[in-house]
Amino acid sequence: IFMGLLKMLIMPLIVSSVICGVTSAGDFSRLGRIALKTFFYFFTTMIIAELLGITLVSVVKPGVGFFEGPQGEHQRDEYLSQRDHRRAQMVARQADQGIITPKSTGEALSGILVRLIPRNPVRDIADGYTLPVIVFSILFGIMLTMTGDSGKVVVNFARGVMAAMIKLTEYVLWLAPVGVYFLVAESVGGIGVGQF
After folding, report:
1. To the nearest whole number, what is the mean pLDDT of the chain?
2. Long-range contacts, stretch 169-172, CB < 8 angstroms, 24+ apart
3. In whole angstroms, how far apart are CA 102 and each of 108, 109, 110, 137?
4. CA-to-CA distance for 31 and 58, rounded, in angstroms?
5. What was the pLDDT predicted at 112?
6. For the chain, how are helix, strand and coil distributed in percent, rounded to 5?
7. Which end of the chain offers a freer environment for a tag, N or C, measured as fewer CB atoms within 10 Å?
8. pTM of the model
9. What is the 3-state secondary structure (H, E, C) of 74-125?
10. Which letter, b or e, does each residue of 88-115 get, where b requires 16 or more Cβ atoms within 10 Å of its Cβ?
11. What pLDDT, in 10s, does the model give residues 128-155?
């Protein structure tokens, strides 16, 4: 339940806060150079963050040695069968979207750049793809600043959504100690106390 509540907050909070942040900068058509620098800075830091994540996972290799101990072999086999099932589902979903599994770092980077552009923002929100949603929200916010008074209605709506989502986040975070307790209890119950 706790994880579901957290996931429920993500997309509305991202969309509303990015739109509010972009529109608070003012009319982008008048800002010119500053707008371009901001846009460039955001995308540069986003790409750096992705590269850093890919590099750290490649170097640190989290999870290596996780399946050691008396039950390790059985747990590893069970995990691998679940992983293969999830991978097959992911490959099928990617095939539906026309995404090809990259064979090199260059293909991976170009795939990231292609996926930054949302094909269907509503579907991306529903599927939980945050990068295209962020790009759409930035572009939408920029266009709202250029529309003048007619865009203020949507900006005010986004501010209201953001205020409501922040309040909802506060209430969900009140449940965090209990939620984390049950998440840890579930993990310990699944692995077994003998692993510790």
Report:
1. 82
2. 169/9, 169/13, 172/2, 172/5, 172/6, 172/9
3. 5, 9, 9, 27
4. 40
5. 74
6. 80, 0, 20
7. C
8. 0.62
9. HHHHHHHHHHHHHHHHHHHHHHHHCCCCCCCHHHHHHHHHHHHCCCCHHHHH
10. eeeeeeeeeeeeeeeeeeeeeeeebeeb
11. 888 889 989 988 998 888 888 888 899 9
| Separation of alpha carbons 148 and 145, rounded Å | 6
The rounded Cα 159 to chain-centroid distance in angstroms is 21
Per-residue pLDDT band for 156 (boundaries 50, 70, 90) equals: very high
Query: From residue 106, how far is each of 58, 65, 79, 94 by CA, in Å?
Result: 16, 30, 30, 19
Collapse the DSSP code of 147 into the 3-class scheme (helix H, G, I; strand E, B; otherwise coil) and give the result.
coil
Amino acid at 20: C
Of 146, 123, 116, the residue nearest 42 (C-alpha): 116
Secondary structure letter of residue 1 according to DSSP:
-
Q: Which helix (H) or strand (E) holds 54?
A: helix 33-60
pLDDT attached to residue 192: 63
Taking the C-alpha atoms of residue 85 and residue 79, their distance in angstroms, rounded to an integer, is 10
d(CA 77, CA 45): 39
pLDDT of residue 195 exceeding 60 = no
Residue with tokens 């310990």: 188
Rounded to 10°, the helix 149-174/176-191 angle is 60
Half-sphere exposure of 73 (CA within 13 A, CB side): 1
